[in-house]
Amino acid sequence: MESLQTKQDLQNAILHLEQRQLLEKNAMQLHYREAQEYLQPSNLLKNAITEITTATDLKKDMLKAAIALAIGYIAKKIVETYVLKTRTPLTIAVETILQIVISGWVAKNGTILKDVAVYFFKTILQHRQQQQQLSESITSEQ
Q: CA 87 to CA 16: how far, in whole Å?
């Protein structure tokens, strides 16, 4: 900053600094109000929900987790119904451990499960097509 020579220069510099101070104060107040508005619980929840609904990776991960939990639960019910027919604390613990292990395995190895499902689906489709062709050839011969 240049050195001030007269009283008028000093007054102008003071006026300029006061204006600058007022502008900075207004900007800080605006920033404070915006931060206060952003940090309100309702806005935090709204922003979190918006982020969750727009995050495609998160959606995929949540879907994988839901599928893994469902398969683990189904495995537990199958074991509970057909394998371990008595309801003792030991069998309940075995069922729960089995559910956790299967859910974890499916969550980590979802592509393997998908490949197996696709293989069985293709096999069933091919079998149906062969049956359909066989029935068509039988009806055409008659």
A: 84
